[in-house]
Design brief:
With 414 residues, the chain is α+β, with helices and mostly antiparallel strands. Helix content is 16%, strand content 31%. The chain folds into two domains: 30-118, Immunoglobulin-like (Sandwich), CATH 2.60.40; 127-413, 4-Layer Sandwich (Purple Acid Phosphatase, chain A, domain 2). The chain has helices spanning 3-25, 146-153, 179-184, 212-215, 248-262, 287-290, 293-298; strands spanning 30-40, 43-50, 56-62, 69-72, 74-77, 83-89, 97-104, 107-109, 116-118, 127-133, 162-165, 196-198, 225-229, 232-236, 268-272, 303-306, 312-315, 334-336, 342-346, 375-379, 383-390, 393-400, 406-413. The strands form four sheets. It has a seven-stranded mixed beta sheet, with no helix packed on it. Strands 13-14-15-16-19-17-20 form a seven-stranded mixed beta sheet, with helices on one face. Strands 3, 4, 7, 8 and 9 form a five-stranded antiparallel beta sheet that branches.
Length: 414
């Protein structure tokens, strides 16, 4: 090799070496705390983000045990140019508390925190609690309250098995670069301990392949999916902009097949989506959702949870035509083996009609209120919903975010 060829080669090697040294010398910093995903069957996924790093692993053990197990994960560069780590744990014991530790390139983070998660319960277990809330990611500086919601959830983290986020997770338009500033920075005492399942709202529909699906690791195609938990079946749907469902024909076909496959194997069937169907809020009825009502009735859906309207509203049982089932109403709060399904709007998790970027005063829409006995309970306040299933009884409690007062309670008994 000629000298003139050697010198450029040496220069290239030196520059490459310098680049590696610079990377090696860069301090690894945690830029997003761990969050739990896809807690299904005997597995759970743990994700976190750092500014740099090549490898990741999780050490985990049964609470009280001295013996740690280890699981390696995958590392990838995100669309915001940081490093995401994902570790999935398998063969977990059901209904058990596990402690865990996260490592990037052998560096442990959050050493002084008692990181833990509840493993999914078994099919024969029938007692568990979860939360549901929508519209949470409004920036604090614009009147949003994701910080207050996170603080209000902290006392419940050890009693909740998972959470359902009912769309409009990030305002104004679901961009990945807004996730940490508008959501994750506030939920560092919740998401490392309670798994969450999410669905898209209209504000999340900003090139979801480049944003939403990069932030969450969900079952199925991540737009619409289902999972079993204990004696309940959960179905998440993508209502996109409300007027037309995402991938409408395919999604409806999938929904029917999914619910038909469950049959009577599960005691409870819960659907969660973003847009409302019938409503007495300031939002119009969305025909795409009302069009699903015959399917809900046919396959025995018990509960439909949605966000979108920045308020709280619980409706009495409805049939497939959206009519109130009068004979199912013993009271407006206790339903004994009801016909039809109950629909609840819980869209005031971090945004409230009349506040911030939604300044128009709250008024129930007179056109929507034409349905007799439609509304069982309502409260125009920041609130989230907790639900407890105990065998063939389901209890729901809506809690005000600011002062944690109960604003609604109901029970369904079969």
């Amino acid at each position: 090799m000629k000298l003139g060829t050697i010198i450029p080669c040496l220069l290239i090697l030196a520059l490459a070496s310098c680049g590696n040294l610079q990377k090696d010398d860069q301090k690894i910093e945690l830029v997003r705390k761990p969050y739990l995903q896809s807690a299904i069957s005997d597995s759970i996924s743990i994700l976190w983000r750092t500014n740099t790093g090549d490898n990741c692993n999780v050490r985990y053990k049964l609470r009280g045990s001295k013996e740690w197990s280890n699981a390696d994960g995958v590392t990838r560069i995100t669309n915001t140019n940081v490093v995401e780590h994902e570790v999935t744990l398998f063969n977990l014991n059901p209904a058990t508390i596990y402690e865990y530790q996260i490592f990037t390139d052998n560096q442990q983070f959050l050493v002084d925190q008692n990181l833990r998660f509840p493993s999914p319960i078994g099919r024969k277990d029938s007692i568990f609690s979860f939360f549901a809330v929508g519209d949470i990611g409004e920036p604090v500086e614009e009147g949003g309250t994701p910080d207050a919601l996170a603080k209000a959830l902290v006392p419940y983290v050890d009693s909740l098995k998972f959470g359902l986020l009912l769309g409009d997770i990030i305002y104004p338009d679901g961009k990945s670069e807004d996730y940490d500033s508008n959501l994750f920075q506030y939920f560092g005492a919740v998401f490392p301990y309670v798994p969450v399942f999410t669905i898209l709202g209209n504000h999340d529909w900003h090139e979801p392949e480049e944003n939403y699906v990069k932030e969450w690791k969900l079952p199925g195609n991540e737009y619409y999916y289902s999972f079993d938990y204990g004696n309940a079946h959960f179905v998440g749907l993508d209502t996109k902009m409300g007027d037309v469902l995402y991938d409408s024909a395919a999604q409806v076909k999938w929904l029917e097949a999914d619910l038909a496959s469950v049959g009577d194997q599960q005691d409870w069937k819960v659907v969660f989506l973003h847009h409302n169907g019938r409503s007495c809020t300031y939002k119009n009825d969305y025909k795409s959702v009302v069009g699903l009502y015959p399917i809900f009735e046919k396959y025995g859906v018990d509960l439909v949870l949605n966000g979108h309207a920045h308020t709280y509203e619980r409706l009495n049982p409805m049939d497939g035509e959206g009519q109130v089932v009068e004979r199912a109403m013993s009271t407006h709060s206790h339903y004994q083996t009801p016909e039809g399904f109950i629909s609840i709007t819980a869209g005031s998790g971090g945004k409230l009609r009349g506040v911030g970027t939604d300044p128009k005063p709250f008024h129930p829409d007179p056109d929507n209120c034409k349905y007799p006995n439609l509304v069982a309970a309502s409260s125009h306040t920041w609130a989230f919903l907790t639900l407890k299933i105990e065998g063939k009884t389901l209890e729901g409690t809506a809690i005000a975010t600011k002062d944690r007062k109960v604003v609604d309670q109901f029970r369904i008994s079969k």
